[in-house]
Amino acid sequence: MAQSEVSMEWALIKQLTGDVSQWTYRKDIVDEESLWANFRAKLNQNNLAVLDGEPVTDAEFHQIREYMLDVAKTPYKAALWLAGENGEAVIPLTREDAAKGTIHLMAVSNREIAGGRSSYEVINQFVSDKQDEDDRERRFDVTLLINGLPMIHIELKNQDHPYMDAFRQIKKYSLEGKFRGLFGMVQMFVISNGSNTRYIAADTGSNLNERFLTSWVNKNNEPVENYLEFAKEVLRIPEAHEMVGHYSVVDAERHKLILLRPYQVHAIEAVKQSSQRQESGFVWHTTGSGKTLTSYTVAKNLILIPGIDKTIFLIDRKDLDQQTSISFKAYAENDIIDVDETDNVHDLLQKLKNKDRVVIVTTIQKMQIIMKRYNSEAKKDSATAKRLHGMCIAFVVDECHRTVTPETQRELQKFFSNSLWYGFTGTPIFDENKRQRKGDLARTTEALYGPCLHNYTIKEALHNNAVLGFQIDYKDSVSHDQLLELGEKLQVASADELANMEPDKLEEKVFAAYYKNVGTDIYDNDNHRRGVVKYIINKAAGKFRLNAPQGEAYEAILTVPSIEIAQRYYQLFKEFIAGGNVSSAIREKCVDFPKIAITYTVTENDEDSLANQQAMKESLADYNEMFGTKFALDSLQAYNTNLNDRLARKKGRYKQRKEQLDIVIVVDRLLTGFDAPPCAILFVDRPPMAPQNIIQAFSRTNRIFDKSKRYGMVVIFQRSAQYQTAVDGALLLYSNGGTKEVSAPTFAEIEKDFMEALAELKSIAATPEAVETIMGDRSAMQKFAKAFQKVDRLSGEIQVYQEWEDKEFSDYGIVKESLTEYGGKYHNVIEELKTPTSDEEPVVVDIGYEIENIRSVTIDYRYIVSLIQNYMPREDELIVEPIEDTAIDGHIDKLRETNPALADVIGGFWEDMKKDPLKYKGLDAMTVIETRIEEIIAQQINTFTQEWCAQKKDVLAILNTFRKGDKISLVTDYEAYKQNHEGVSKLKYNRKAKDAVIELIEKIRPLREK
Q1: Coil, helix or strand for 599?
Q2: Going by DSSP bridges, is the β-strand pair 149-156/188-192 parallel, antiparallel, or unpaired?
Q3: How confident is the model at residue 440, as a pLDDT?
């Protein structure tokens, strides 16, 4: 029998407060009043000197309370305040005695972890106050307080429930506005069913994304799932305070709090220990697992080590407009460390010479200029040169092989003889793929930086859901039979010899002979390229997920071997679209697909410069027309930044379909160090790359994004056999022997799974209508729900394979309409399963599962709300420009066709927001709308119960369980009704009341079933 939630709570509290832990259990803190009283006591205790021995008065505490309520409006605003000045969050207080002026009270210090004025307390079963009589009282499971502030909240479910039930509960509480007041300070949520435990950074309810739930692994990358083991590793002191104090980052660009993943924490600790030993090294974290964030936190922590004078984060000049530099500035904006981006060489020199302990972000090119200057005869013996030579500098290098060559690193090490080097890479260079020999220069990562301090491979990242695996399709325009025929014709070998050759060797020999005879690559022709264009536009809808709600489809990168071929592809795409060749099926899914752009490096004085500049001018004109921008050749850096932002969709405006790109054509740009979670597809039309470049390029696609994105999808259009060999080798090299785990199942495997799932579904209910016969049988209903969820998941997965191009659902004995009907019945089953039974039989199916693929997509409620959120003023905005967006008006009108009640709520909010946007400053649109909906529902129920003299609990029970055709049993008070309604018989009254309940259901259901 599963352990009860109550016993789990007490076991967790015992774990936290026992042993050598510094957590103290406070059974007296159970509600808002006692929570605020405790916080007041902490402030008085920790600020005796500042308060001059006089505790805060009631009037002063009212002032403090108002300040804290403002700070805790959103998790992001709370995180900004907690970051504080030099790691200390303070509260300004004007004393009641005017002569004492204004003072600042220390609330939380990240410099006093596990000591000083920091206190650690555990509370449980905290009761969140009702905001009004229609609000629901909520009890929180276990919460951890630091200096009286709730910082980590834990929701538990027993093992009869999936851990996701705990996550959904937190989301629900958040949307209900329960994480307000001091509970608005929570920075970390932990969910567990005892056997599976996850954590996530706090966010508003609508932004909590289950894809970012993180499981813990220990230093050896072994999973820690049990909730008590998790508590030992993560929630004891100092670890818990470090997690929310040192291992959290505030992203100013996205207005998000980020909690580091376990492997990032272990890597940072490993670098810290290495620096204390004055040793260099490198960190191997698979591409896509957040290396920039890890390297940022490493740089931030290194400057705190007394023996290090400066930390320099090195980037290459061509990366200045890239995400590494942008991300650093976004992370550092509200941090305890100043990250100085050097504007020029003089500025860099001044920062190196002064005694400020800062992290300097600069380019390798500026460092080389300084070295050249102070290596010259005139300055090599100067005081500045001697000072620079003697400094202990820690160099942090993200994408360490692209940024610093072995030659440059040797120069820097010679100049800064007391330097430490920490390289970060997702693709180390090993003996198997070492660089070409160049004198005695280092040829591998270890030779360049020192030992690997921490590794985290694709295999481990996949296991921990930090990245996705790869689904690779080979769509070659040259078939195996054509290869054999061509080999004979070119006299490469005899027919028998050709037939017995390994496929990759056959390609290699035949294509070499073809090039020798014809003088061009076999794939370098427009026939081949037109086939690629046709496939990408008309045959890859499943990969792009074009049937997704507006603004949620995926995007792709097409990589080719040269700028000339990239330009040709761009023209061919334009010709294909202009020629009306986009299929009607694609147009039905997405009317403006595809939107294409191109990016490459434009030089000034090379042989091809003029042609490249002219081609880029034309593509910039197209881009400007598409998005209303004004980029020109002299603003290419700004164009590239804009294109990067558009692809990354991290800024609110780019979540709108009208601001999105579908395909960008590149040679090498964006194939390393570029993070765009919506990018799900890489199209490859170029010869095989080196192992490290294959992994880097493929890894543009495997960032976590949404529930439907299960793999990074790669389509290779040439040299399929050679690529297969190269890809297998690269995956083997970089996945620690786990290639099978890295690659997606084959189409045959997915097809088999889908057919089996479909057969299982039909064995439970042969037709959608047959589902009605199992209603009431909870065991059969759960089996049906599980089977349907499997069919839904696999139906989405199977459609991304190229083999699906020639398939239909009817090939598997079912039509799409029937699947949609099954989906409707599934919703009824889930509603029934949500109703508790008297014997409390555990539900073993995930009742919170959302159908992803078997549904008709219209204008999506969440999408409209996300568009409105883009216009919600940020907390720090004082002036807001007038709001006008006819697209949102159009979406609301479209929604009104299918759900007028919901459209009216959203439309009313949208109009109100446009009139007075500052009224909604710093708020979450989804929470505001959900609150309005609940207020409307409560008002309608109250009106009904008063008019028909019914009990609210009875009406709520009917609303939650009623299905079309059900008999209604409504408890009413005829005698009370009769007092205000003369001449109505009891029979007529009962009939009318039941009709009114059905009318009420029809009003309310559309507001809840979105």
Answers
A1: coil
A2: parallel
A3: 67
Residues in the chain: 1010
- What is residue 439's predicted lDDT score, i.e. its pLDDT? 65
Asked if the bond preceding 549 is cis, omega within 30° of 0, the reply is no
Pairwise CA distance, residues 407 & 414, whole Å: 11
Closest-CA residue to 701 (of 908, 848, 559, 815): 559
Cβ burial of 357 (10 Å; 0-12, 13-18, 19+) is middle
pLDDT for the residue 963: 66
The token pair at 828 is 């009824």
CB-based contact 843:782 (threshold 8 Å):
yes
Q: What would you measure as the largest C-alpha separation in the chain, in angstroms?
A: 112
**Sign (positive/negative) of CA torsion 396, 401, 403, 409?**
positive
How many angstroms separate the CA atoms of 207 and 189, rounded?
13
Nearest to 768 by CA among 755, 784, 754: 784
**Cβ-contact 520, 561 below 8 angstroms:** no
Q: What is the pLDDT of residue 237?
A: 92
Contact between 424 and 398 (Cβ < 8 Å): yes
Burial state string for 383-409 with b = 16 or more CB within 10 A and e = fewer than 16: eebeebeeebbbbbbbbbbbbbbbebb
Q: Which amino acid is at 945?
A: T
Backbone angles phi, psi at 695, to 5 degrees: -65, -45
Residues 6+ positions from 713 with CB-CB distance below 8 Å = 470, 471, 472, 473, 543, 680, 681, 682, 701, 800
Running along the chain, 1010 residues long, what does each successive block of 10 average in pLDDT?
84 89 91 96 94 93 94 89 85 89 92 88 88 67 96 93 90 86 95 95 86 89 92 94 90 84 93 92 89 86 84 72 62 62 80 83 86 87 88 88 82 90 90 70 85 89 83 91 92 90 92 92 95 95 86 94 96 96 90 94 72 91 95 91 91 87 95 89 95 91 87 94 91 70 80 92 91 87 90 84 80 86 85 66 64 54 80 77 81 84 90 88 82 85 85 75 68 80 81 84 78
How many angstroms separate the CA atoms of 839 and 139, rounded? 23
DSSP string of 317-331? Answer: GGGTTSHHHHHHHHH
- Kindly provide the b/e burial profile for residues 173-195, where b requires at least 16 CB atoms within 10 angstroms of the residue's own CB: bbbbbbbbbbbbbbbbbbbbbbe
Round to whole Å and give the CA distance between 486 and 477. 14
> 802 near 473, Cβ under 8 Å?
yes
The Cα 166–Cα 341 span in angstroms is: 43
